[in-house]
Protein 1
Amino acid sequence: MKEYKDVLIKYLPPNSVDLVIELFEEHPCYLKIVNNRSTKHGDFKVLANGTHQITINYGLNPYRFLLTLVHEVAHLVTYKISRRVKPHGIEWKTNFQHLMLPFFDPKIYPNELMGLLANYMKNPKASTDADVNLSLALKKYDEKNGFNYVFELPLQSKFIHNNSVFIRGKKRRTRIECVEVITQKKYLFHQNAEVKSLK
């Protein structure tokens, strides 16, 4: 586990590393740090040889990295206990809540995140980005990368997403309607989708 510790110390809040090592000792799997993916922060899969693998994006800030890691370990635990259940159903929610308990510590998470995390964990969703308040609070700890959430942009402003230019439109319940400039097609963006603003 020493090699895990040497790697994890670069990505996690310092006071969480030993707890994460204990988690891996109890639930062994192959951890892979991968290039950032725009559609997900992490994932869990069963490999062809029957072993388990968790991948996490390398660019996450320590607090989001930890939350994503525990989220994926909860998938691993759920798979081992009951394989034929919904990916983010009640079994996964219960396991996620249980596994996160040791990390609810002001020595690990800043006070401003503790209340938001507690609220999110009452009924965790498939993505932390579904919780706008928590997502915004976590974003404060990201390295500045020039990206904004779609909902932060003014109406009719232009932005780039996946090498295409869009115009930000009105909000429809939880999604924001945007128009691709070249094709004039309408797309619904999650309000927390990260995009590059064009000033």
Note: The chain has a mean pLDDT of 92.
Protein 2
Amino acid sequence: MNESKLSKYLKYVEEGDDTFLHKLNDYCFPRIVYHVSKNYSSAIADAVAQEFFLRLKEKSLPACEERVSAWILSCCSAIAQERMASAETEQAESDGFAAFAAEKAQDQAFVSLDETDQKIVYFRYQKKFRLNEIASLLQLPYTMVRKRHSRLKERTGDLLAALEQAKE
């Protein structure tokens, strides 16, 4: 579907035409899921796509000031970031990270890590997140998370090897 057709569909949706909302959904939903899965988390991809269309129907999205396809993906990225941040907040509020840290407290290698490194270990080995998801969650550049994880593997080989085996 080309940009002009997407623009036309979006205009009709904004006017309240559900037929075009369904057409837009049929076309964009798989693309949104792919984009979110690739850049954030496959676990939240469907929910982000659904939430995008709910917000579109409720007219609670920012105005489209760019190409429609880019606008859709940027809105979905914002929704994904909101979900990842709320998941981090829920994790921090719940005993998940605290319990994991307490369990590993007797392990000298874990205690010697700073809080960010401990969170990288937690999200990678306890929650099984990918490094790009962790980067998004911690709001750090992907390369930084990748390098820190690599250094962590070198410094705490036994700890991470045990966690890796527990992950499988």
Note: The two ends are 42 Å apart (CA to CA).
